Amino acid sequence: MGVVRGGEIYEVLEKTGVWYKIVSEQTDGRKVTGYVHQSLLVELNAPTTTVAATTQEKAKTKPPAPVTEAKAVKKQTAPAKPAPAAKPTPLVKKNTPSGDKEEGKLFVRIAGGYASKSTSVNTNLPFTAYFEESSVASSYDVKGSGPTGELAVGYWFSKSLGAEVAFSYVSGSNDASFTAAIPHPLYFNKTRSASWKKDLSYSEMELDLNLLYRMAINEKMNLVFTLGGAYFPSVSLENLSIVEWTDSYPYTEVTVSPSYDKQTGSGFGVNAGASIDYALGKKMFLTLGARYSTASVTVDSEFFDSTVGIDLKPGGIRGLVGIKFLF
Question: pTM (2 decimals)?
């Protein structure tokens, strides 16, 4: 290894990249051939034959190995076998109540149908004649059966829950049988008997406050269950109010002339039912249903100077068909 000194001129043997190959005579007389970086030399003519050293530097006997820029090459691999496609999960369409998809939750229902109810009541109506106590035995076959109508207003609080107030009216017949024991005007315990029948009227009004539960059958049909209280503000029964009679000597027979009047009562009960609603449009449904209600009502019957309570069971089974409107 030798040394190049600044200011000296050297002959270039060859140039390799940034390195010059020169011959340098050392202070001890030796001639050393080596490589010097171009940053330490200045070219004096071109093409390059001589150079001058700018600073003193040791000359290398051979140039460093050239640096080769390495380029990263992505290793090519065989494409991975695609995973089998997942089997699509079938979509299940969930039925939602038809009314929930429409505008408006307030509804009005108008319906008509037939009510069926029959009950029998037996009672004695007391009176006093010729200073002797007696009575009229009465038997009522109350038939609250016949055409009925219903008007309801309700509101859906959610998809499934709602409430309604419903009013209905039904009228029927009261097949009554009477047997009167009329005292004898001359003898005690010698009553005379008179019997007759009369077709009397019967009617009842019902007011229901119901909770509703709705579930979808399909896109157009809903099943609605109802449960709630029933109030009968007016249960009207036509009843015997007074009996007049005529007789003649020897007073073995009598002819009666009865009079009738309507008495009313009220009471509380329960009701339950179910219906199917079929969507005819966005805001109109055809409804078909049935309902059962029952209550205990006492009708006070005024007969002569006495008051007799007649216990009735209003309500019964009703089949209804109607139209429901959403608002």
Answer: 0.67
